[in-house]
Structure formats: structure tokens, C-alpha cells
Write a structure and sequence with these properties.
The structure holds two protein chains of two kinds.
Chain A: H1 6-12, H2 19-37, H3 42-52, H4 55-59, H5 63-66, H6 76-79, H7 82-92, H8 105-122, H9 125-130, H10 134-153, H11 157-162, H12 167-180, H13 192-204, H14 206-221, H15 225-248, H16 253-269, H17 273-285, H18 290-296, H19 298-326, H20 332-336, H21 348-356, H22 370-373
Helix pairs in contact in A: 2-3, 8-10, 14-15, 16-17, 16-19
Chain B: H1 10-22, H2 27-46, H3 61-73, H4 94-104, H5 114-122, H6 141-151
The chains are: A mainly alpha, B mainly alpha.
Chain lengths: 376, 152
Amino acid sequence: MSFLKLPQMTIALGNNKPEPLLEVERIIWKTLFVLSEGLHVPEDVVEQLLVQIPWEHLQCLDPSQRSWFNIRAPPLPLIAPAPTLDVQLTQTTSLPTPPSFPAPALPDHVDMTLDHEAQGSAHDPDAMDTQPDGNELRSTEKLTDDCAGIDEEIPTCDPTKELSSQGQAETQRRSASVDRQPQSPSVGEDGGADLQSQLPRAMAFPEPGLQSSSDAAEDLASSKVPSETIATRRSARLNSKEKSQEERGAERRVPSTSGTWRSRTGNRGKATKPKQMSPDNSSRSASPIPPVLKRKEPPEVEDLVSAGSSVSRPIDVDALDAVLERFPVKYELQVSNCKMPHPQPTDFFQYVKQEIGLSDLQQPVRRDLPHQAKPP
Amino acid sequence: MQNSRPDGLHIPIALLRSISRVKATSKRAKVTANFLSAALHIAFLRSAASKNGLHDLPESAQALMIQYENSSASGGPVVEYLISSSTSVSQFTQEDQEFLRTFDSREAGLGGLRNHLHLATAISPLYLLLPKDLSAKNFHRQTLMEVIIWAL
């Protein structure tokens, strides 16, 4: 709840329902109170309700009104036009946030805390031995640089960064990740101005954004889907992260492997060597010399290759596990207990119409009702 | 004669009987049962029973039956309803007791009948249109609040 600002809270409470939905709700409430009086045959009352609901009118709604059922997706009229959002932001907060919703800043916040932790472990020489290679550390440094750029653009990340070491921050991060999951595919790891400029456009077109949020709605609906979808999102997230790291460190791949080899040889010889070598790795990694060094020592290249092939894979898995542990993804368990039966939130009425079988409602079959079979 | 004023548990019990009659096997019958359950809850809250001891639908069917027998024995107006015209209002039939015992075997108990009105008021009455047996599910209030806060 703490992540919801006032405009989001009003949206979350369902205050911006489209008028046709409110009309349907009024019809349902009237039916309920008529039923609660106990004066009419329930089957007749419900049948009258199903006839009274304007199904054709509901099917002619525009996508923005139909997307109200798309849970966890902010209403499109508040997202697509930038001026209305600016008005809302100036009314509530004076933050210089971009004209997108504040929620997309959250993934960057979590990545940033993660990178700070990784950076903190990078300064620990003992932790350096557990790190896969220097490439990982350099990539995290680059990511922290990117996040620092994001910090300058989005100052809302700062208080959450301060909370990252506390226990409350852990719970906040967990709840934030739940809110973040439908939006994480649209927000990449690189962040920055490019993504900020792409976000409003991506939200303006309903296909990508609504696709992700409809997936999230299906997460709510089924207890089996979430783990798979989140796993795919998580893997996609990590893949994008690794791709960005590979693109950045494409020229430095060889130095990174040589760094691991040096650390391995340091472990074999003396225990103090890797502590001295690890800062050198970061300094040498910036120079283009290491490919030549790799060619100069042919017998050790075999050792390097064997060490790289046998060591890098398990260490990479550990690093992935360490990253995955910091991504809390199990929160659907609380929500999946309720098993919300929303199969397709955007097509709610279509679903209800199909499920109930309203095709024969035009000619109500009264003999189907058990009450009508009995004589009065 | 029909009486529009809910003085006792007669209307809730009549609605409960109509739920048992619906036999929600088809999807349309499940929607009808959802509406009847929400109406039952409203009728119970409007009845005098909610002001005299029971403030909400009880967790067990036994408590409801005891309350109903007490209200009938106290000389409350016996109201014949159209939906319960074929059965006696003054006492539970064997069929009613069997139906109420089915709630005791569930995890949510008879309190599962509160789900419908809770969901309708907290989220949307459109929930009642879903062809699901909402009374069989055990909605934790924390889960419900979380769903309301960030799912809508």
C-alpha cells in the first residue's frame, strides 16, 4: 500500500469504472435486494437480470473501457494522454518524474539495490573469490552507473535505496516486485532516458502493456500459471541483463577469463595472491592488452580453458541463484489461495455470456426451472 | 399471505431452501445460487435475528438452526413465501438439515455464504455473474484486501 500514491489508490479502489459497468452493477444490486425480500421466484429474478443486462452495448465498448477488468493495469485514459497525467502529478506531487506512471521506476530501484549489494561484495576481497569473474563485477559497475543516471532523473529511488538494508525494505521490495511483475517486461535493465521516452508510447498502445498485465491477471486467476510465467519473465529479464552485459563486455571477454584464471592460479599458489590480483583485474580489464597475454602462454591456455570451462559454469549458476534469491517472486501464493476466477478480464462479459449460455435467453425455457415444475 | 417485512429468519431460511433446490450443477444454476447466497446474506442482515444475538451469518449450520428454532418458538409471524410454499416454515425438513450439513463438511462452513456479499461489496457485484461456487472457497480477508488494493 505504501507504493500506491493517491491517484493510484483511487484507481485501485475502482473509482473510475466506466458508466456501462456501473449501470450493470446497479441492475445487479436491484436484483439482489429484490431477491432478499423473498417475494419472487429466484430463477425468474435472475433470468430477468440476465435479460436486462445490455450485452450488445457492453460488447461495443471501446478497449479503454473494456480494459477496466484488466487488473493491475492502470486505466488507459490516465496513461495515454500526457497532459492529464501532468495535471495529476502536479496536483499530488511536485516530483520531476517523466510523464509515465511512477510504477515503472520500481524495477530500476530493485536492480539498483541489487547492484549496490554486488558492488559492496566487490570491495570484499573474500567475496571476490566467490564471484564468477571480473566481467560480472564490471557489468554491475556499469549498471550502477546507469542507475546513478536514473537517480539523477528520478529522485524517488533514493528513499527506497536507503531502506534496502532494513527488514521493512525487504517486505517493501517483495510487495513492490508483485506490483512490478506485469510491468517488468516493458521496463528493461538499461533504463535511462531511452526507456523513459519509450514508456509512454508503449503504454499508449494497448498491445504490449495490456498483454503483460493480462498475463498478470492470469497469474491471479490460476495458481499454476504464475510460477511459470514469472520464471519466464525472470529468465527473460536475466537474459536481457546478460545480453546487455555481453554487449558491453564483448571486447573484454578475454580479460575476464584471464582474470578468473589468475584468481584460480592464485588460489593454488598463495592465498593472498587473489586479493592483490583482483584490483589489477579491474585495472587491466580496461586495457586491450590481455588477448595478447592469452596467446603468449600456450601451456597455460589449456589450463585456462579447462579452468574456464569447469569453473565458470558452476559459478555462473551460483551467481544466477544469488540473483534469483534477491528477486522475490513467490508472492502469488498469498493471492493464489483465493483462486480468483478471472479467465480473461478484458472479455469478462463475453466469458460470462458464453459460460452461462445466454444464447437461449431470448426464448426463456421455463420448463428448465425446477420451481416451475411444481404446481402452485 | 406474503409479508414484505423481514421480522425473523424466515426469509433467510426460505432463501437457503431455494439454494438447496437449485442444485447448482449447471453454470446458470451456479449464477443463480450466487445471487441467492448474496440475497440470503442481505436478508439475514436485515432480519431481526441479526439484531438479537447473531450479528452475521454463523459459522456453523447448527447455530443457524438453533437460532431459527428459537425465533419460531418465540411466536414470530409465520410467513408463507412463494418460494417456500411447498414446505413447512416452522421446522427444518430432513432435506434442509442435510443441505445445511453439507456446509459443515466444508472448510469455509456456513460462513462461506458470506463470500458472495463480501466480494460484491468489496470488489464488484459483477463477481456474482461468474458461474463458480463461491461459497466453497475460503477467502482470507487479508487476501481479499490485497486483491482489492493492488489487483483492481
